[in-house]
Design a protein that fits this description.
Shape: globular
CATH topology of the largest domain: Muramoyl-pentapeptide Carboxypeptidase, domain 2
Number of strands: 8
Number of domains: 2
Strand order of the largest sheet: 5-6-8-7
CATH class of the largest domain: Alpha Beta
CATH architecture of the largest domain: 2-Layer Sandwich
Length: 341
Amino acid sequence: MPNKNIFQSWLTLQLKILHKRCSRGRFEHHRSAAKVHQGRRWNRPLGEAILQKQPCHTVALVATVVLILILVFCAGCTKVENGLTPDELNDENTESADSGQVDDLSGPENGEQIGPGETDENQLSDGNVEDDQQSPAGDSGAYDQSHLLVISDGNYLLALTIKETTLKSDYMPADLQPIPDYTNPSYNMQLRAEALEYLGALWNAADADGVTLHIRSAYRSYATQEGLFRDYASRHGEVEANRFSARAGQSEHQLGTAVDFGGSGVDFMAEFAQTPQGYWLGENAHHFGFAMSYTEGNEEVTGYIFEPWHFRYIGIDEATRWKDSGKTLKEYLETKPQYYE
């Protein structure tokens, strides 16, 4: 509202003028009443004078109420314009989608009950996270990437995307396609063509079993992940943020084959595993080529805490072998050929 301040000033001025006129009216009324009692002059009955002056008081009262309501409304608009929604947060709330829209930050990249929910609208925090004391530099240049193995081909479905490797900053899958609305995406999302095909089959199978899934996050660019991690690091410190959020280049979401599922009342929480959605995915996702990347009790291996909502497409045969192996996805992919520059 670019003319908000001008309008408020004008309305305030009009209200002051109205009060002055009312005050002048009250003064004239009292002077006439005094003359009546002194017997000097009788203009009209005192009661009639009061009734004729009363509308002025009513108008002033109404104008005051209107001004207050407008000021409250304008204040609310200012908060919305600045991104301070009633629930902020979350989300967490915010994660930028590559389509130009903004996600609600409804969940961390890799997180349990930590992350944007602490300060964003998506109530993800369990209140037990404490920031460490190091500088929250994020990916601003303080992080040395020289020791990382650079993945040569992000299109490879079995590419090992972990804290010791990195995708190129300009890597973007060439076959990204929009996720259809019937899967309940939180915003305009994209996924690689093959992964999207099997995601549709997975969603339909769950729906047939009476389980409604929502898609909370999918492909993210390097730049989006960079900003997301920097935001988490600014609130939790780099060490804590890196337990539930990947640095840019290390996120499976950049591959265009990773999906964060939801649809429960505890999305992006460990408790998601006990919901109909989480339980169904844990039992059936591998039949459609999706593997849970960060399994329970394996943070020391995967580098990230338990994420029962985060699944990565690796193909039906490989996902079935992964499931049967009992290994974490990281351990399983380490047995496969990897290609670095």
